[in-house]
Amino acid sequence: xxxxxxxxxxxxxxxxxxxxxxxxxxxxxxxxxxxxxxxxxxxxxxxxxxxxxxxxxxxxxxxxxxxxxxxxxxxxxxxxxxxxxxxxxxxxxxxxxxxxxxxxxxxxxxxxxxxxxxxxxxxxxxxxxxxxxxxxxxxxxxxxxxxxxxxxxxxxxxxxxxxxxxxxxxxxxxxxxxxxxxxxxxxxxxxxxxxxxxxxxxxxxxxxxxxxxxxxxxxxxxxxxxxxxxxxxxxxxxxxxxxxxxxxxxxxxxxxxxxxxxxxxxxxxxx
Length: 271
Fold this sequence. Notes:
The protein is α/β, with parallel strands linked by helices and 271 residues long. Helix content is 44%, strand content 13%. The protein has helices at 14-25, 59-68, 83-97, 123-151, 179-198, 217-221, 224-229, 237-249, 261-270; strands at residues 4-9, 28-34, 73-77, 102-105, 155-159, 205-210, 259-260. β1 (4-9), α1 and β2 (28-34) form a beta-alpha-beta unit. α1 (14-25) packs across α8 (237-249), α4 (123-151) runs parallel beside α5 and α8 (237-249) packs across α9 (261-270).
């Protein structure tokens, strides 16, 4: 029996890594991408100022965990600010596995401009944020959708953000968030609904998931987790991964504009 294949961006750590592992336990093979191929690599991830501190996790460490869970893993370095690298990774994954059943647009850009006030942000910073959070996910969808339509089978899940749905409780850097990141995620939210309408006669599924407040390694490195922790409870990355895996396999209709992971997790626990 042919195993299902998931293509996951931002899978070197956090939600992406945990989802790859959870899907492997559910019988998937995975194609995983991120900038960090090996442990100890340094990449720019500053939200206020330059920060190239090495973060825990890598594609290779995720792949080891996937294989331990019984799945195959194809690791490919890519950068969502360079869409050609993501498209090349999709092409390589299709060449290796022949098909993609699940596209999880998980990676997001939270670099410079993410937490700047409106009067301080630059057009270049906004452009980078929209490239990483809107244009590259769109390119990935355009690359995998034809094959899914041909097979009449497939699921596309976009990671969005609660910051796109509500006003911040405080200014950026004081427990709230900035304009550029939240507006980019608001734009991404519109994609799934449009895809559902455009392909209403297909068997494909399109979803937006909002994870709640998840403490990431990037947030820790930039001092953001403490500022936001006073305003909301954290959702473990593993919980997010378990719900996403359930959504990928569920035969139920999930057509809400945004699926909120914390609420879904509570429903699953009550079953």
